[in-house]
Amino acid sequence: MFEPRACQSVVEPIKADHAPAALVFDTARDFETVPPATAEELGFAVDALEPATYPADWLPDDSPAVLSQYASSTFTIGMPGDGSVVWTRQTDPPVVLVKPRLEGSPESFVNFLLAEAFVELGLEVPEHFLGFFEDSYRDLDRAIDADPTSTYQIAAALYDGWVGLQTQDVFAEWHETHPELADAWQDAGDRLEGRVAGLPRAVARGETDVADATELACAAIKHAIELPAPFGALDTAAYRDHGAEYAVRWAEKTFDAMAD
Known about the structure:
Blueprint: E1 2-4, H1 12-18, E2 23-27, H2 36-39, E3 48-49, H3 65-71, E4 85-88, E5 91-92, E6 95-98, H4 107-123, H5 129-133, H6 137-143, H7 148-177, H8 179-197, H9 199-204, H10 210-221, H11 237-259
Parallel strand pairs: 2-6
Antiparallel strand pairs: 1-2, 3-5, 4-6
């Protein structure tokens, strides 16, 4: 399942600066969550495994089964919405996994995703939105008028946006120090810009739902793209500083406004 992957020279300085001990592997197949028995195979490549666990009372009663499993003591890596490159600190040293669905993608884009994973590892942010929201995930669930799967999607997006607030300044500095990675970061942002600008209209017309719109808008934060209302309130220092409390308040105001 796991094949060691060598980083290209353009990515090595980022790894050295942010996550020098991390191990990088290609996975034999795509996944949302690596099955526990398969995940434990990493034990042969690392010094130790330490599964993350979260209190059951952080979860709403109707949470998706995959979230309940993740919160338990079962050793799992990766969750829906994590993207094509996944990192974990449940191993010592930490591990970065590259999914095969990236095959055929531009080399510069793959390098950016790897560099992004190293930066996030270096920030020591929580590995999943449960570690970000903690017991306030129940408050978020109450604020969002949606089914459990959509609530999960919005929570994952809001966490992604909060992390993006911390990485965007790092990426912007690459124009001076790592121009190839900066160009890939900029190019990915340019591809999102038009879609993001049209989000309010798309939601109003029913062409996209709030969960998908939140996911796209929050993904754009790391690219320093200007966001339309109500998502612009997430691209702020207030959100970076106040985190989960701010995210819950944003959800309350946004869904209250939609109900009016």
